[in-house]
Amino acid sequence: MVMEKIKTIVFLFIISFSFLIAGEIDILLNKLINKGIITKEEANEIKQEIKKEKESEKGKYSFLKDTKFSGDLRVRFQMENIEGDPNRNRGRFRGRFGFKTNLAENTEVGLRLASGVGEQTSTNQTFEDSFSQKSIWIDRFYVKHKINNFGIIAGKIENPFYSTDLIWDTDINPEGIAFTYQNNNFFTNLGVFILDEFRNLTDDPMLYGFQIGYKGKNFKIGSGIYLTNNLVGKKQDDISPKYKPKGNSLNNGEYIYEYKPISILFEVTPFEIVNKSFKIYGEYIQNTESNLVNNKGYLIGISLGNLKEKGDFEFGYNYRRIEADATMAILSDSDINGGGTSLKGHKINFGYQVSKNSSLGVTYFIGSPLSPRNDKRNTLQIDYLVKF
């Protein structure tokens, strides 16, 4: 009986440390055989159990071979010339890091963390507060399933819609569920997103989006509509507590309209200049909610080149005009004229690829207000970006 207990203890001990290399296990088992504690048959049984345990552990983490990590770091100097107020100069940074992995043939899970102050339209963090520690936020966390041409993605997700930054700031990652379909050149996207949740109300504000489009060899077109629901009577500061843009019509801080903008957008690459693709793009939007006057917006722009390899350069320019209630101010671009709606202005940018993983960029915004706003702001951004 005592010997059986010893054998059991030995077996459990070896299994517990089955991460030992094969040679070390063999030496240990041979010593136990020589001392008569176990037989050769029992030693072989232990080896088989260890082999099965290792194969089982290997299967548990097989998904790691399909896991891709990525990130970027951007350091920025930003100068703002604000009419009627002191100019503002500041250093800023953005850090993002995450992964995505295939759990099964058609299932992907992803997570991305980012710096920032919790605003939905920005992951920038200002150098301030005597070197204080900075916050890290969940920027994306999702699960995606794909079956043939159909896809479904849920969680805090990458924006599924083909867009400019007229309606959607490029940093926004909606929360909810989206359905996608793509067949050769045709695509369609449907999204159901939660804008906020009120514990004492059943009519939480929601956002629904539907889009169809077509992508050809040298062009892409799309059209869609975005519909808010239960927004009227809700305070903008409750819906968007961290980011408080100007533009939308409010009554004592409360929304007085729903936002139902239709969107028509396109891009075309008609030719090359100095072996660089030249692109023309644009978007027109109109809020279809009734009894609105300032309900339209448009953006038109050009770009030349893109940044991929060392020595590449890119140039871009666009002009936009977006009336007060064309779309939700809390979702549109946050850079030009301080962000929001009820504005017009120019964006000029130039970028140069310094090395395989790093680039320099300069962007200049010339912003002006539309009634009822009266603020005017020009912004210069100088960026150094590293991707890894």
Describe the protein.
The longest helix has 21 residues, at 40-60. Helices cover 14% and strands 47% of the residues. The protein has 388 residues and is mainly beta. It is elongated. It contains four helices and 19 strands. It folds into two domains: 2-60, no CATH class; 64-387, Porin (Beta Barrel).
Explain the layout of strands and helices:
Blueprint (H helix, E strand, L loop, with lengths): L1 H15 L5 H13 L5 H21 L6 E16 L5 E17 L2 E8 L10 E2 L10 E11 L2 E7 L18 E9 L2 E9 L11 E10 L3 E11 L6 H4 L10 E2 L2 E2 L5 E13 L2 E12 L8 E9 L8 E10 L20 E11 L4 E12 L7 E11 L1
In short:
This protein has helices at 2-16, 22-34, 40-60, 236-239, and strands spanning 67-82, 88-104, 107-114, 125-126, 137-147, 150-156, 175-183, 186-194, 206-215, 219-229, 250-251, 254-255, 261-273, 276-287, 296-304, 313-322, 343-353, 358-369, 377-387. It is mostly beta strands and 388 residues long. The protein has two domains: 2-60, no CATH class; 64-387, Porin (Beta Barrel), CATH 2.40.160.10.
Looking at this protein, list some descriptive labels.
388 residues; mainly beta; Porin; 16-stranded antiparallel barrel; two-stranded antiparallel ribbon; 19 strands
Give the class from helix and strand content and strand pairing: mainly beta
* CATH topology group of the largest domain: Porin
The major pleated sheet works out as:
16 strands, antiparallel, barrel
The CATH superfamily of the largest domain bears the name Porin
Instruction: Give the tally of β-strands.
Output: 19
- Tell me the span between the first and last alpha carbons: 60 Å
Overall residue-averaged pLDDT value: 92
Q: Which CATH class of the largest domain applies here?
A: Mainly Beta
- Give the low-pLDDT segments: none
Q: Helix-strand pattern, N to C?
A: HHHEEEEEEEEEEHEEEEEEEEE
**Overall geometric form:** elongated
Percentage beta strand: over 45%
As laid out across the biggest beta sheet, the strand order is: 1-2-3-5-6-7-8-9-10-13-14-15-16-17-18-19
User: What is the number of independent domains?
Assistant: 2
* Helix fraction bin: 10-25%
